[in-house]
Each structure stands twice: as C-alpha cells, then as structure tokens.
Design a protein that fits this description.
disordered N terminus; 11 helices; Hect, E3 ligase catalytic domain fold; alpha+beta; globular; four-stranded mixed sheet
Amino acid sequence: MARSRQGKFLGGPTPYGLMRDPNDHGHLIIDPETAPTVKLVFDLALNGCGTMKIAKHLLERKIPITRIKEPVESEVRYYSWSGSVIGKMLRNPVYKGDHVVCKCHQKAIRSNTVNFIPRDQWEIIENSHEAIVSREQWDRVQKLIDRRPPIMQGNSCPFYNLFHGLVYCATCGKSMQVRYEKVGRTGKNRFTGEMREPIDKAYYICQTYNRLGKNACTSHKIEARDLYNLVLSDIMEHGKMALQDAEAFYGRLTHRLEQRYSIDEKSLKKEQDALAKRNQEIDEMFMSLYADKAKGILTEQRFLRMTETLEQEQADNKVRMQAITDELRIASSADSDVRRFIGEIREYASITELDEAILNRLIDKIFISTVEVIDGEKVQKVRIVYNFVGEIM
C-alpha cells in the first residue's frame, strides 16, 4: 500500500471504514456507511471481547464484510468476519487518523521475497486524515490486546477468568495465573453442604513461584471468589462516593494526582528545548564530517566511529524528549482524566456482579501482596490501580 511522505494515499485498497475524498483522491475521509462498524469493533474490544467474539457479534447482526452494491440473499459468506481480519483492524493506526508509510519491503526488484517490518519500527505519519476512533481509545485497545494471555491448550478448568491480564504479583511484578482444584475433590462446601460454583474452586498464584519455586518468589495465593468480592465492593464503594458527592470525590482524586505529578514544568521544557537544539547541532555536525571525509581529512574508519557516537547520542536524546513529552501530557491531562473516571465509575454504583466490560473500562492492574501475619491474623494487601487515576487510597 503506497503512500507519499506527506501522508497522501496513493494506491492499494482503501481501508474499511474510509473512502477517497471526491475532491482529492489522495486523501481519505470517513465512510458514513462502514465507519460505524469500525467504531463498534473498537467499542466491543474495549469491553473485553476477543476477536472471535467480535466476529460472531457482527455475524449475528448481519453486518457485511464489505459494501454490498446490489441486493443479495442472506448468505453467511457475506457476513463471515474472521478473527484475523478483526485483529488487523484493531491494530491498524489508520483508524486513529495516522498512516503507516511502509509495513514491508521487497528484497529486490525481481525478487518474490517480502520482508515484514516489525511493528515497533513502523514509520507513522500522524493526523493524515480524520480519525474514526480517538487516540485514547485506540491506545487502550492496544493495551488490552497486549495483556490478553495466550489460549492454554488442554486447559479443562471450567472457571472463566474475568481477570485475565489484570492480576499481578506485587513482589516480582509477573502476572498471576489462575489454577483450579484437582479433579476428584468434592464439589460441596464442607460447611454448608451446598454445591460450589467454578469460581469457588479457582485461585490465583504467582507465575514466578509456579515456574521457579519458593526460592524465586512466594505463591501470593488468593482465592478467585475473594478477589471477585473485593473488587466488586471497591467499585461499588467508589461509585457511590461519586454519586453522592462528585465534587468532594473530584477534589480527593485531583489532590492525589497533583502530588503524584508534581513536576517542574518549566525545567522540563527547558531540558526538552536543549535536547532539540543539540540534535540540530548533531545534524550539522554530520554534514561537516561528511565534507571532511570527502576532502580526505577524515579516514573512513574514523568517520564511521564518530558518526556512530553522534547517532547514539541523537537517539538517546529523542528517547528522553519523548519521555518529557509524555510526562508533561500526563500532568496536563490529570483534570480531564479525573472527570472521565468519575463519569465512568458512577455508572456502577449499584452493580451486583462483575463482567469483562466493567473491569476493562475501570481497572488497569491489580497487585496481590503476600500474606502477612499482623497481630495474630493473616492479612493480604490487594492494590487496585484504576484507569485514568491510578490507585485510590
């Protein structure tokens, strides 16, 4: 799919959800007919749906995989979305308004071999056209995809893990794995005699402990039912606070964020400007070194050694500049993040059960600490890190 350096769309099929501008065929605009489907796919992904679940949802709603230009009979092939198609759509930066300059390259003109460029090395041209989904939503979906665990072959556990990709060990930082009681144990509660649900037989343990044993980390074991009840209670509690006195809750959260992001904005901007100036100086030095090499003043070996050092310095400067940009952006968006979180959580003040949509919209991570004995009682600390605002104390 060829595109110019200015972000013009030159050739290849037009991405689903977009169309060519009638006044400028090199520019993309939103297709009002298919763009709502793209938005629906991202909304479903944000609610925790996997690619196949999204594909089945589109099939049930009989949403065609492309434009149907003439009346056709209701054949399943017109609505047979595949998981791979959905996955590529969710990963495509074009839907947040960006163009990817090149995803692959041909080894030679007469070669049939194509090398795919790794995702982290893609060259992106930002804001090339109107976005279908916001950058924030696109980034959150990428995060959900990245943390989704692989399907475990041969796993006969009947417990559906609502917390997949959310639960982490507070000691080593590795994800917690769900385990199920061994086959053969009774399904009845030994105290009440009632049959237990799958969640009552499931528990989480540290991945490091499971792989390397107690010398590497402790189990950090927590029962799935206990975790479920704790998270449900915490969400309900904060939801009620947001409903009863939104301004007081807002003040409490913003005070915490101000302490967390108490940065010297002026000094950071000064450092960023200095790094940008230094990178510009390095570009000029490259031209000077090349001229010296052409004149024979510098040997080839010395030229390569000096340019390699300068390139590394320039790369390090760019990394630091991006980190400063991110830090400044997070600090400046704290107020809107708090408002957004309050708007989200107040909807769940009266919920009675959890589902993936609630967890993925509200929670970023859950850290499980090891069990400690305090005043003769076993205590286990659980830290819930919410989206937008972090941990609420």
